[in-house]
Write a structure and sequence with these properties.
The complex is a heterotrimer of chains A (193), B (489) and C (183).
Chain A (H helix, E strand, L loop, with lengths): L1 H13 L10 H6 L4 H33 L5 H23 L1 H7 L10 H12 L4 H31 L9 H16 L2 H4 L2
Chain B lengths: L23 E3 L5 E5 L9 E2 L6 E2 L4 E4 L8 E2 L4 E10 L7 E9 L19 H10 L12 H11 L3 E6 L8 H8 L1 H15 L3 E7 L3 H10 L5 E6 L8 H9 L14 E5 H12 L6 E7 L7 E6 L4 H7 L9 E4 L6 E2 L13 E5 L1 H4 L12 H5 L6 H9 L3 H6 L10 H5 L6 H67 L1
Parallel strand pairs in B: 1-14, 9-10, 9-12, 10-11, 13-17
Antiparallel strand pairs in B: 2-8, 3-5, 4-7, 5-6, 7-8, 13-14, 15-16, 15-17
Chain C lengths: L1 H24 L6 H9 L12 H11 L11 H12 L14 E5 L9 H5 L5 E2 L7 E2 L9 H5 L5 E5 L17 H6 L1
Antiparallel strand pairs in C: 1-4, 2-3
The chains are: A mainly alpha (193), B alpha/beta (489), C mainly alpha (183).
């Protein structure tokens, strides 16, 4: 149990998917202007990531490995991920049309969010068991959501600040992302204790 | 009496010494008076005299319209020479309907209706007389006083607070009024007290006016009016601040003083009530402070409503120095006068001609988040945060953090070390919000009109079609009948 | 080789089937966003956007096939509001915001032909044949239909006059008060 908790914490904070592994930067910069949409994106990605890691584990262990066709791994994973994303898109459109509109192109782009495929592949590489890989996906997604919300909150404040015109918007956002990343690197200190 | 702790506030340099020792003098009657029909909050009055009419001083020349309005009376005897647009006593200087009155020099009052014993009048009668006299809040808000009296009488008032704060720098008109005409002020307060039937009456006067406090205490001897010295601090003259200082209660956001059983009137309003009821004189003049570093002889003048501001400056010896800004009202909450020809109205407490040194307006610098404005805000808002949101056009967020509770006292702008025009941002945002609200109401109304029209058009088309179908059917039936008759024949 | 082809095909087919079922189950009738957008539009059905009425424009907006700046009567404010609703950046460069406008009938040119009040979507024009027409400012949405209909160019759109009731302080940093007065 303790082990699982540690795994969750280490994936969410120490090995944060966005700020330490630098995966999934596209929605991180793209959908972080407003807190609401950032939270929505985080939730959607959490759902997709958790489901996709579970599905890819099953695919790997029940289909690809027994048949010895591991070379099709990326192809098969992408197929599953795309299906999950499509399903999520339909569900969000039904549940919250305005969130659907706000997420816009970034919602179908979860498919190409490298964090999703990356985690599925990392799961295989690290030879995780089912529960472990599920927690690995879920923890990373939590970390993703946390960072999205933090960053959106900072950007909302940044929008009010008087910064030089050339630095306004994305440039200041990038610097902010860099600082936030530095801060998250500090969690590496947790691993030593 | 124990006073209660206050929030925020600033201590601007008073500069009251310029005119504080100058007794009230009457301004010689100017040749022409420009009397705007709207000098109060609410609906504008409607002129009931025509060009060419001769009027007597105190004669009704424009009657109030609707529940919140106030009538206007002739400030002197003479002839109405024009009813047209004239620059308003407003920062925009936009033209407003104004009656121009040519004084005949006789200054003859119309016959006054004076009750035998003013203090025996029924409360309703007092309110009615106050309404008929066109009295509005003379502290600057210019809200029709009778409306306040009626609301308070109905909702019940525990405490009547009379505001002698006069916290704005430079202004000394209320100070002089209390010093010189304390008896009248006290009589006015007693009349208001009778009109609303409050339990206690408190007069709050800032402690930088010892003469006024002494005069009012002497005049109030033997009555149940309690004169209380309050610390000199801006904005003590804000009714809710004075309320908090005296009785320790805070008016809820978006609420009115009446919600906590308090009625606040200005001392000058009380005096106007006394004049209206005991002397039968409607509100046709007021006391105005003429001051500022650029004025040669600052003083306090009793001025007929409608006098152009220029006449006041002229009477005070003109400008000794070149004024950098002309202000109507106090320097904190007053507004710039676009031209000196604009008239004194009921709510004008002062006209100031300020030198460049007095206004001192360096370029604004970026906010360093020192939060001086937060400490200064008497309402407890976050001016820096609100201004930042307004600057980027996020009005909804500014409203969320309390923009609508801002009283535009200017304390934040005064203390800002970066000279950010904070209160200007808030005034702008409030105006824009009101404009948006109006536009939204209009859109809703026009949308309704459009749907009604579409429905009507459809109905007309349908009816036409039905009528055509009926005609066709009738014609066919007639033809068939013809055939039938033809066949049988 | 065969195993790879078969397994991937089977995987694709089964996922496709699942998605097909989900699409049935989670079907959305119409676009609920369109209704929200339509509520924000002026509603005078003037047709200046090129769509038949505000409902058509709202549908096009919801689908993303029309820019948020499509509505001339709505002006800049509406474009900003729509962009916020849709969560997109509004390109306001093309919007010339002349501020609120109203129609006005020039009485010396009006011949009383009644064409303008027949086309007015909000019944904002009053008149009768051979009588000069007049505009109710409160009801006019400045859609411009009357301007097109007028045979003598007697109707035109003019800025809403600023009154003491509608005036408010300009934003700090924009025009100072005194220059506004000089005009």
């Amino acid at each position: 149990m303790n082990e699982y908790l540690l795994l969750l914490l280490s994936t969410a904070l120490v090995n944060n998917v966005v700020l330490v592994k630098f995966l999934g930067l596209c929605p991180f910069m793209g959908v972080s202007k407003k807190m609401d949409s950032a939270l929505g994106m985080g939730m959607a990605t959490t759902f997709v990531l958790t489901l996709a890691t579970a599905a890819s584990w099953m695919l790997e262990h029940w289909l690809l490995a027994p048949l010895g066709i591991e070379y099709l791994r990326i192809l098969a994973f992408i197929l599953v991920i795309a299906a999950v994303v499509q399903f999520t898109e339909m569900a969000i459109r039904k549940a919250s049309p305005s969130l659907y509109q706000v997420l816009g192109i970034y919602l179908p782009l979860i498919t190409t969010n490298c964090a999703v495929l990356g985690l599925a592949l990392l799961n295989v590489q690290e030879k995780h068991a089912f529960v472990e890989s599920l927690l690995y996906g879920f923890g990373s997604a939590l970390g993703f959501t946390l960072v999205m919300v933090l960053f959106a909150g900072l950007r909302e404040r940044l929008a009010l600040a008087q910064v030089p015109a050339t630095m306004n918007g994305a440039p200041a956002g990038f610097i902010l992302a860099g600082l936030l990343s530095l801060a998250f690197m500090g969690f590496a200190g947790l691993a030593n204790h | 009496m124990k006073l209660f702790k206050l929030r925020g506030g600033v201590h601007p340099i008073g500069r009251k010494e310029l005119s504080a020792e100058r007794p009230i003098r009457a301004l010689p009657m100017p040749e022409r008076l420009f009397v705007p029909l709207q000098q109060h909050v609410g609906a504008a009055a409607t002129a009931i005299v025509a060009v060419g009419d001769k009027v007597l001083k105190g004669q009704l020349i424009a009657s109030g319209q609707g529940p919140i309005s106030a009538p206007v009376h002739a400030p002197t005897s003479g002839r109405i020479v024009a009813l047209g647009d004239y620059p308003a006593p407003h920062p925009s200087g936009l033209p407003v309907p104004t009656l121009t009155l040519e004084a005949d020099g006789e200054d003859r009052w119309q016959a006054a209706d004076i009750p035998d014993d003013p203090f025996a009048l029924a409360p309703e009668d007092i309110a009615a007389r106050v309404a008929a006299a066109g009295i509005v809040g003379l502290g600057g808000a210019a809200f029709p006083s009778a409306v306040k009296l009626n609301i308070s009488r109905k909702s019940g008032v525990d405490t009547l607070i009379v505001n002698g704060g006069e916290c704005e720098p430079y202004l000394t008109c209320d100070d002089r009024l209390m010093c010189e005409r304390a008896e009248g002020v006290v009589a006015g307060i007693r009349l208001i007290h009778r009109a609303v039937g409050s339990r206690q009456v408190l007069v709050g006067i800032e402690d930088n006016k010892p003469a006024a406090i002494a005069a009012m205490r002497a005049a109030a001897l033997g009555t149940d009016i309690q004169v209380v010295a309050v610390p000199a601090m801006y904005p003590m003259g804000w009714d809710k601040q004075l309320t908090r200082a005296l009785i320790g209660k805070e008016v809820p956001a978006g609420g009115r003083s009446a919600d906590i059983g308090v009625l606040v009137h200005n001392v000058a309003t009380a005096y106007a009530v006394y004049e209206a009821i005991a002397l039968g004189r409607p509100l046709v003049s007021r006391i105005v402070t003429v001051s500022g570093g650029a004025v040669k002889e600052p003083c306090n003048l009793e001025v007929p409503i409608g006098t152009p501001a220029q006449a006041l400056f002229d009477h005070c010896g003109g400008f000794g120095k070149m004024p950098a800004r002309l202000v109507m009202g106090g320097p904190m909450m007053g507004h710039e006068m676009p031209i000196t020809g604009i008239p004194i109205v009921k709510g004008t407490s002062g006209v100031l001609a300020l030198t460049p040194a007095e206004i001192g307006q360096p370029e604004p610098a970026p906010c360093i988040r020192c939060s001086s404005c937060v400490r200064a805000c008497p309402v407890g808002l976050l001016p820096l945060e609100m201004a930042a949101r307004i600057r980027v056009g996020d009005l909804a967020d500014a409203v969320d953090i309390g923009l609508k509770d801002c009283i535009a006292c200017g304390s934040c702008s005064y203390v800002c070390p970066a000279h950010i025009p904070l209160v200007h941002y808030f005034n702008h945002a409030k105006g824009e919000l009101t404009a948006k609200e109006k536009a939204k109401l209009k859109q809703e109304a026009t949308k309704k009109l459009a749907t009604e029209r579409t429905a009507r058009m459809e109905r007309i088309a349908r009816e036409r079609e039905e009528a055509a179908a009926r005609r066709r059917a009738a014609k066919e039936a007639a033809e068939a009948a013809k055939k039938m008759t033809g066949a049988t024949a | 080789m065969l195993a790879a082809v078969v397994s991937l095909t089977a995987l694709g087919a089964s996922l496709g089937l699942m998605l097909g079922v989900a699409a049935r189950k989670l079907r959305v009738e119409g676009n609920p966003l369109a209704a929200e957008l339509e509520a924000m539009m002026p509603g005078s059905q003037c047709g200046q956007c090129g769509f038949p009425g505000c409902a058509g424009a709202a549908n096009a907006l919801a689908e993303g096939s029309a820019p948020v700046t499509l509505c001339p009567p709505g002006g800049r404010d509406l474009a900003v509001a729509l962009a916020a609703k849709l969560g997109i950046e509004a390109d306001l460069s093309g919007v010339k915001d002349s501020g609120p406008l109203v129609a006005e009938v020039q009485e010396d040119i009006c011949i009383g032909c009644t064409r303008c009040y027949k086309v007015c979507p909000t019944d904002a024009i009053m008149g009768a044949a051979k009588h000069i027409h007049a505009v109710f400012r409160e009801a006019c949405t400045a859609c411009g239909k009357c301007v097109e209909a007028c045979p003598t160019e007697a109707t035109r759109l003019v800025p809403v006059p600023v009154t003491l009731q509608s005036w408010y302080w300009p934003k700090p940093g924009s025009n100072p008060v005194s220059t506004a007065l000089a005009a």
